[in-house]
Amino acid sequence: MxxxxxxxxEPYRRLPPGMIGNIREIATSLGAGTGVVGLAMVIVIQxxxxxxxxxxxxxxxxxxxxxxxxxGASLLSGLAMVISRTLVRTGSVxxxxxxxxxxxxxxxxxxxxxxxxxxxxxxxxxxxxxxRYNPQDRIEVTPGIVMYxxxxxxxxxxxxxxxxxxxxxxxPTVEKVRKHLARESG
Length: 186
Prior knowledge:
mainly alpha, three-stranded antiparallel β-sheet, 3 strands
């Protein structure tokens, strides 16, 4: 069982200055990185989904849509992390905003997991089942197909990391706050 989180009833939660700096730095860098990677994934998915050998498959619309949806969730998750920097004031964190951020990150994480699962459900059988009736229709597994298959998985992982990190940053345990206070005071 984990430590209880700091949950005051005030609109702002006081935190040590060192923690505030860490929250700003980590939220900005992780959010910017995730957002840029998410945008790159959206672009790569749109291009590679049209040129890979699987582009002629009937389920390509579904797989491209779900892969793009997962990458878009990663992009929005990164954007939410960058915007979360505004929740941090000098010496405090806005409680309601942190709760909303956690909900947004959880929703985007759930969306990325769903999109990845639907993508894999339709895409992997297309590759594995190709050439079953006609050997000439066999789709060879190339590095491009492997990369395209792993992009929604990467998007889901990045979105999950953002959810976990945002929760740990904005809702630190009492023990973590005490350690920061002890480190700063002596």
